[in-house]
TrEMBL record:
Superkingdom per UniProt: Bacteria
Protein name according to UniProt: D-inositol 3-phosphate glycosyltransferase
Domain DUF3492: 14-276
Keywords: Transferase
InterPro entries xrefs: DUF3492 (IPR022622), PelF-like (IPR047691)
Amino acid sequence: MHGPLAEPCPDTPSVTLLTEGTYPHHHGGVSVWCDQLVTGMPDVDFRVVAVTATGRESPVWEPPAQVREIRTAPMWGPPPPGRAPRGSRLRRFRTELEAFLTALLDPGQEELFPASLYTLAGYAERGELSPALRSEDAVRVLARLWNRPALPTAAARPTLRDALTAVDLLEHALRPLAVPPATDGVTHAVSGGLATLPGLVAHHRHKVPFLLTEHGVYLRERYLGSRAEPYRWPVKALLLGFFRLLAGEGYRSAALVTPGNRYNRRWEEHGGTPPERIRTVYNGVDPAAFPLAGPEPETPTLSWAGRVDPIKDLATLVRAFALVREELPGARLRIFGGTPRGAESYRTGLEKLAAELGVAGGVTFEGRVEDIRDAYAAGNVVMLSSVSEGFPFTLIEAMSCGRATVSTDVGGVREAVGETGLVVPPRDPAAMARAALRLLNDPAERARMGEGARLRVIEQFTLRQTISAFRDIYHELAGHGGEYGDDGRGRRTAAVALAAGGDG
């Protein structure tokens, strides 16, 4: 699928934006961020490589003219065309696949991961990787390997069914390796994980500078999400090994890592990013687009906005609301946002929980709202209950609208609100209820916090600041070209270290 074309602008960098499950095919905070980025830089020539589910998704964002091409990399659509290697090439593939899988399973062999990943990328480029991974040969390699007594997986006695499942999941996860890599400009992954694969290949083959922005920590969210996955431990161990080593390769290969908050920095340094390559760039909003929300509702109301998803931990919010209703029986909770495909049972479970707690009459699921500002205006207090966040747009948008907030202490939340909102531990309904009641019962404090929140956004978190920072970074990286990255022995060139700076 291709977007509108525009003539390239001379003397400006070409940027390949790498996304997964977000822009331009889905709504959400990261998609908003991508749209702001490309729309705010008419002087930059953009291309988008979007990792999607099936490739049949329709765009929900209208890209501006500077987005010259949109290419999808579907993970779950029809199998990619191609044919598995044969003869001597098949024997070599088995050897190289075994090295790759060994890196994922054996902590003492992780150094095999980069070379084997890029070797598999070569098979993907020739259309051989997906059919080879769908073959019995690949399943046999894994079934033989992870039953070796020295490997941790052997104790779980993995079955042939486990091997079939694991190889199938890997085949889908590695499909983005088949995307033709950029040969010039800058690649910019807007999350860790599978979106980084085309950028890593472009850096490895063509020395294209690779920029990684993390809003949330992709690896942490994979760990959290694995609890609910229906696979046995050997399958989970293999997949989490893949995502952990992929995160490390992304951190080490990036010319710059730009977290959306300082909290992420700890994960990035632990994952292998040299500190001088990390530069925090906060998300920003346009205060004029999010003006003061105006009069509060007369009924004490908590509002929440986002996508209805387990990582947002709305169950804690519903439980906290039930405690609020014990003191304020007329209070309401209004939940704004769509339910992604696959999360329908989670939404049903929330409705059932509200009924069990006796507050179903006070909780309303409003669905997607045409103007998100209406969601913030709908509450006296805006809530955020997530167990994982980066630097959430809903929070700084609500702050710009002058609403007091109660948020969980995850990611960059505390950095965002400062002293202008209440921050509580995640998964703690009682603490959340106490904070909500404190603000609902004190109009003066709500007003004071709301005024301070808007001023904080204007001073520190404007869209203009964000766009300016990334424009400078694009020119910086494009100007150094192949000088960015390792010298082949894990050391940075002097030019990179000087340019990258850090948080300062």
